[in-house]
Every structure is written in C-alpha cells, then in structure tokens.
Task: inverse folding
C-alpha cells in the first residue's frame, strides 16, 4: 500500500496549521506503506469495535455538557481534556477546538468531539517515554489508528486527500458487485464525505463520515 506521493499537491494557506500537519502525517504514513487495510470489507468488519470505543468517551462528553444541549464550549473541552489526561497547551487546545467546530457555531457536538480527540491523538506527542499512550484510552487510540489506516487505503497516490476516482478504485478492489454497482457505491460513499464539494476529501471530512458509518449520533440526534 502507499503509492508514490503526487508531485502536484494542493498548496494550503499559511494559517491552516492543523490541515498542513495532518496532510504531512498522512503522506508520511502512505510513503512508509504502513496501512494494514487491504479491502473495504476489512474496514466494515471493525465498525462494531470502533462504535464501542467511541461510546466509551460519550459519558465524559455528557458530564461536561452542563446545559444538556448536546454540545460543549471551549472551557468545557479543556475540562474534558483534563479528565482524559490529554495534555496540550492552551494554544493547541484552542486550535483543535476551532478545527473541530465544523459547522462554525462556536460549540462542539459529540461527533465534533471525536474529531477533536482524533486530531489530538494523531498530531500529539506520546505522553510517556515508552510511547504507549497519547490520550490514555487504548481502544479509542486503536480506533483512530484504524481510521487513519482506512484513509491511507483509499488515498491511492498518497497525497493526503481522497478523490472520487480513488474511492471508486478502492471499492473495485474490495467488492464482488458488478462494475456499475461498484461505481455507484464509490460515488455514493465519496459524496457522503466531500462536505465542501471541492472534489477531494480531507481526513477530517473522512472521520466525520466514518462516525456516521459506524452508527454514532450526536446526543441531540439520539433525543430526536
């Protein structure tokens, strides 16, 4: 896995620090051929365990959702980080908060909370000298590693983004359906992920779609 990295990568604005760091990390993982995922079916088989890992942190999220609105603010996020023993500077937590606030309403929903924790895990340094733990939740860390592996599987040219063509190619590698059906599945999955309709999927968009695939809902959705 992990084909050659494309020479024509999208130039990112200087201010987009998080995406730059994510793209770099994903490119390095692809270049090192570290993805263990060999098919889309292999990803599907792990949905149940990932769903359970995500639910482990829902109780933490709910404890700090003081007004029971299904969202938390920046100060409550900092308290969540302290509860989970996730250690970052004030500036880094602010950066993760702003990056995780996908709908720009200055609040973080549970799905967005998962995104924030994923960014903290994937971009953070291990807290222990033995490198065993970054956020102190092994099942959640395993889930983030699995999702990163899945992203690298779809990112055929290793440039840190997934295109529609790459998604279709990945489905063709994995599915026993007809070519027409495979194309349809690939397009449908891609459109679920490409939130800003710019023709390529970032890791953040991929992660948000992934939470839906495994059945995770925001607290307000569950109440409905």
Result:
């Amino acid at each position: 896995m992990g084909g050659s990295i494309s020479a024509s990568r999208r130039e990112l604005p200087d201010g987009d620090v998080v995406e730059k760091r994510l793209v770099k990390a994903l490119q390095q993982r692809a270049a090192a051929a570290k993805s263990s995922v060999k098919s889309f079916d292999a990803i599907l088989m792990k949905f149940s365990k990932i769903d359970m890992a995500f639910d482990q942190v829902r109780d933490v999220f709910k404890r700090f959702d003081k007004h029971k609105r299904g969202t938390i603010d920046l100060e409550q996020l900092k308290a969540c980080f302290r509860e989970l023993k996730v250690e970052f500077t004030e500036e880094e937590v602010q950066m993760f908060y702003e990056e995780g606030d996908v709908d720009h309403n200055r609040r973080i929903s549970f799905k967005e909370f998962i995104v924030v924790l994923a960014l903290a895990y994937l971009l953070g340094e291990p807290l222990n000298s033995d490198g065993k733990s970054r956020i102190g939740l092994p099942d959640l860390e395993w889930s983030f590693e699995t999702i990163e592996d899945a992203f690298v599987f779809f990112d055929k040219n290793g440039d840190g983004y997934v295109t529609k063509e790459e998604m279709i190619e990945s489905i063709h590698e994995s599915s026993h359906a007809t070519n027409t059906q495979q194309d349809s599945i690939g397009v449908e999955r891609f459109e679920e992920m490409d939130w800003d309709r710019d023709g390529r999927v970032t890791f953040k968009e991929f992660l948000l779609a992934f939470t839906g695939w495994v059945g995770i809902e925001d607290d307000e959705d569950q109440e409905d």
